[in-house]
Write a structure and sequence with these properties.
With about 260 residues, this protein is α/β, with parallel strands linked by helices. It has two domains: about 80 residues, Ribosomal protein L30/S12 (60s Ribosomal Protein L30, Chain: A, 2-Layer Sandwich); about 160 residues, 3-Layer(aba) Sandwich (Alpha/beta knot), CATH 3.40.1280. Helices cover about 35% and strands about 20% of the residues. The strands form two sheets. It has a six-stranded parallel beta sheet, with helices on both faces. The chain has a four-stranded mixed beta sheet with strand order 1-4-2-3. Strand 6, helix 6 and strand 7 form a beta-alpha-beta unit. Helix 1 runs parallel beside helix 2 and helix 5 packs parallel to helix 9. About 40% of the residues are buried.
Length: about 260
């Protein structure tokens, strides 16, 4: 089935490189085949198993390694010094688009599974969501064009999962229209919904939509929803934060799609 072409490829300030900080993020970038141009390692870094494995992969992939002082890394850091003695510089590749993902799903006959974040997301929230999405094998996490990209903080918070999951920036109205054309059920998570997530069928082609923490899903986007679900709160608090809510929704979908008999 032909679908409408998405918005133009995402570009965040036309950057040609991005920074990856921390042992897990750098390790996952190496494992994922991310194109790294150079890796800065602290001169007196503790040579644990992870650093040894990173050094092996750097040597195997013929990536330039530069030993520097901790003060140099602190000056370079964009995560408040949370670099753990290692910072990698990666080339920014062309972002995949929804059309490519859908074509691959049809070819592999995989049951589509998407997560849509309907607002501009804080870096730490996005990183946490990407970590959960990768663990649940989501086909793509889709955010608005104005949302943040794979910043050092996002990468660090995701513990490197951001190197393994597809992140797409697009116009969400176009995305939802595409989902409608190809039969993907659009389910919005909102505390105002009457139906519990545990009483909603999440087994078919699916896109779970998470709203902004303060305003939820906008009325304009709500018109495209096939269903609204809520997470039952048993205590005194009225809601969970967005990244935790996304984790609950994704794992309930995984339970139904993989283990519900």
């Amino acid at each position: 089935m032909r679908v409408k072409q998405p918005s133009k490829r995402f570009s965040r300030n036309e950057n040609i490189t991005r920074q990856i900080e921390g042992r897990n993020p750098v390790m996952e970038a190496l494992r994922a085949g991310t194109s790294l141009t150079q890796v800065f390692i602290e001169e007196n870094v503790n040579q644990d198993d992870k650093i040894e494995r990173i050094n092996q992969l750097i040597w195997q992939k013929k990536i330039k390694k530069i030993r520097v002082s901790r003060k140099k890394l602190d000056r370079m850091s964009k995560t408040g010094g949370q670099h753990q003695g290692i910072i990698a510089i990666a080339e920014v590749g062309e972002e995949k688009n929804l059309n490519e993902i859908i074509a691959n799903l049809w070819q592999t006959k995989k049951n589509p599974f998407f997560l849509v974040l309907s607002g501009v997301v804080y870096e730490h929230n996005l990183g946490a969501v990407l970590r959960t999405a990768e663990s649940c094998q989501v086909d793509a996490v889709i955010v608005p064009n104005k949302a943040t990209g794979l910043t050092p903080v996002v990468s660090r918070t995701s513990a490197g999962a951001s190197e393994h999951v597809v992140l797409i920036h697009d116009n969400l109205f176009n995305v939802f229209k595409t989902f409608q054309k190809i039969g993907v059920k659009i389910v919005g998570a909102t505390e105002k919904a009457n139906r519990s997530i545990y009483r909603t069928n999440l087994t078919g082609p699916l896109a779970i939509v998470m709203g902004m923490e303060d305003t939820g899903i906008s009325p304009a986007l709500q018109k495209y929803l096939d269903a609204e679900i809520r997470i039952q709160m048993l205590g005194q608090m009225e809601s969970l934060n967005m990244s935790v809510s996304a984790a609950v929704c994704l794992y309930e979908a995984v339970r139904q799609r993989r283990y519900n008999e």
